[in-house]
TrEMBL record:
InterPro entries recorded: AB_hydrolase_3, AB_hydrolase_fold, GDXG_lipolytic_enzyme
Xref: SUPFAM superfamilies: alpha/beta-Hydrolases
UniProt keyword ATP-binding, yes or no: no
Residue ranges annotated for the Alpha/beta hydrolase fold-3 domain, each copy included: 79-167
Record's keyword terms, sorted: Hydrolase
One GO MF term: hydrolase activity
N-terminal signal peptide: none
Source domain of life: Bacteria
Pfam family, one: Abhydrolase_3
UniProt protein name: Alpha/beta hydrolase
Species of provenance: Actinomadura monticuli
Length: 288
């Protein structure tokens, strides 16, 4: 399990790995800041006046909170979005940009916070992501959410967390059905995170190869294989593209979508455009 051979990072130097996975450096400071400003602006616009239940504590142990957006009459299918930021940045406040577009199609959005590294270990961050799904299943009805129609998605580190809710081996421990996640859409996900042990991010997440392997969805029992669409931008980091291209066929119940003209940071913003192919694929997952 500790050997990188045959998986992202095999045969690369540490500098080459950093180039493959340092998407902030690839974008450059000006473009990166523009992307982050768009996240905030689009999220604020999406939830302005939108019916919802913001700031609900979903996890007693950590005290972390989530926002519910786009509630209506009856129970709605729900898209749980887990934000990125290499497990050490961003928040739910800048991650609800898809909420209005989904509301207009009769879908609710749930956006959780999780404790960021290095304050929390990656094991704890994974636990919290799964706790957010458990909260929707157990308490969703009280907030207009259908616990039988949960779709999970996330970008970058959030794509990793999405996959950690897709795999098996954890649902029984928290009293959930194996198919609690009915479908998934990871964006630019990290599925074998052993390369992280050799790049700058490890100063914050502090993984060794053994722990990284244990937290890699590609190396875990798939359990119930839910339908999935694995999304990446054409101009994404090479490491992220390789991760999706390798994991999608191994998952065996999903499709790979490489979106032209999009990079690591803006591909997920297509969720805010109901006319985009990304949005159409998400709605197909939700409705199937």
């Amino acid at each position: 399990m500790s050997d990188l051979e045959g998986w992202p990072g095999s045969g690369l130097s540490d500098e080459e790995l950093d180039v493959a996975y340092n998407v902030r450096r690839k974008a450059g400071p000006e473009l990166f800041e523009r992307h982050m400003a768009r996240y905030r602006e689009m999220s604020e616009q999406a939830v302005d006046g939108l019916p919802g239940h913001p700031g609900i504590a979903y996890d007693e142990a950590s005290g972390e909170r989530l926002d519910v957006w786009g509630v209506g009459d009856g129970l709605r299918p729900v898209f749980v979005f887990l934000h990125g930021g290499y497990w050490m940045a961003l928040s739910r406040d800048v991650s609800s940009f898809m909420a209005r577009a989904l509301d207009e199609q009769g879908v609710a959005t749930v956006v959780p916070d999780y404790t960021l590294a290095p304050e929390a270990s990656l094991e704890e961050i994974v636990r919290q992501a799964r706790a957010a799904v458990a909260w929707v299943y157990r308490h969703g009805r009280e907030h207009g959410l259908d616990p039988e129609r949960i779709v999970v998605g996330g970008s970058s580190a959030g794509g990793h967390l999405t996959a950690m809710t897709m795999v098996g081996g954890w649902q029984d421990d928290v009293g959930l059905p194996q198919d609690v996640v009915k479908a998934a859409m990871p964006f630019s996900g990290l599925f074998d995170i052993r390369p992280i042990t050799r790049i700058y991010v490890n100063r914050y997440v502090k993984l060794d190869l053994e722990r990284a392997a244990a937290l890699s969805p590609a190396l875990l029992d798939a359990g119930h294989r839910c339908p999935a669409v694995f999304v990446a931008g054409e101009d994404d980091g090479d490491g992220f593209l390789e991760q999706s291209r390798l994991f999608q066929p191994r998952w065996g119940a999903g499709e790979l979508m490489i979106v032209p003209g999009r990079d690591h940071f803006d591909v997920v913003l297509d969720l805010a455009d109901p006319e985009s192919r990304v949005s159409a694929e998400l709605m197909r997952l939700i409705r199937r």
